[in-house]
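Hi U.,

Before I forget, here's the chain from the pilot set. I'm dumping it here mostly so it's searchable later in email.
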Amino acid sequence: MRARVKVCGINSEDAFDAAIEAGADWVGFVFFPPSPRFIMPARAAELSARHPAGPPRVGLFVDPTDEAVETALAAVPLDILQLYAEPARAAWLRRRFARPVWRAVGIATRADLPDDAACADALLIEAKAPPEATRPGGNALRFDWSLLARWRAPAPWLLAGGLDPDNVAAAIAASGATAVDVSSGVESAPGVKDPALIRAFIAAARAPLPESVRGG
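Structure:
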C-alpha cells in the first residue's frame, strides 16, 4: 500500500498547485496566527477555489473558539478539523461542526503513545514540543520513529514532525506509517513552500523502499 501524504501549511498558489498536481491526498491550511504558515480564511478560500474538486481540505486550529472554527468554515469548505485541543474539547467541536477530527499528539517516549482515540477520527503523531516552543506543533522536530513499530493504534494515524524528502522513506520503514504529514520539510524558508520539494517529498513517500531503509 502506498503511503498517503498531507501537505500542511499551504499559503501560496505555487504551493497549492504543486501539491494538487503531485497527487497529495490532503492539503492543509493553518489557522493559528503565531505560525509562519498562518493564513486568513478568505485567502484559504481563494487558494482552495483553484482546484475545487481536489483532495480533502484540512484546517489546523490550536485551542480554537467555536467562533474561530465557524468563521473559517464560512469562508472555505474544510473537510477535516485538525486540532491541538484536549480530547473533550475536540469531541465537542466534532459534534458542533459535524466534521471529522484529527487530534495531534506529541510523543517523547513510548508512554506518550495513546491507547484511546478519545472520539478522534484520526491521530497525528509528532514530537512533543519542547518547553520553550511557541507552538504546540510544527516545530520540525523528530522523535524516535521506532517507538511506533509495535504500537497498536486506536485509530488511523499520520506521522509528522521533521519529515523531508530525504528521510521520509526511512521514517515510513521505521514507524510502519501508512500516512505522513509534511510542512517545514518542504520549505525554502519558514512559511515559504518550495514546489520542487513538495513534488520530491510526495515521490519519495510513495517510492519503493530501498534496501538501505527496508525493514528499519
